[in-house]
Specification:
By secondary structure, this protein is of the alpha+beta class. It contains 1 helix and 4 strands, in the order H-E-E-E-E.
Length: about 90
């Protein structure tokens, strides 16, 4: 678990999560907060069933845990995070 204070990426993802789900700060734990190089253009997310174009893509991953349930947020270099329901 990442200790407080969270990085800018984690703060962004927490705010995004709270805007989509009614979740208090006390319910959220940051499990993963890292820069990654995704192996394909789908940013490590198979939500649409596709593999994405095989091209190394720099980006970020933040995984939150809320009441024991993990929520994986992925982003490319632009830091436009999205909830990935099917992380690869």
């Amino acid at each position: 678990m990442i200790s407080q204070p969270e990085s800018t990426n984690a703060q962004t993802v927490i705010a995004l999560h709270q805007s989509q789900f009614a979740t208090s700060n006390e319910q959220i734990k940051v499990l993963v907060d890292e820069a990654v190089t995704w192996p394909a253009s789908n940013l490590g997310c198979a939500d649409d069933g596709g593999m994405g174009r095989a091209v190394l893509t720099p980006g970020f991953r933040v995984v939150l845990e809320v009441d024991g349930v993990p929520f994986a947020y992925h982003a490319g270099r632009n830091r436009q995070f999205f909830l990935c329901n099917k992380p690869e």
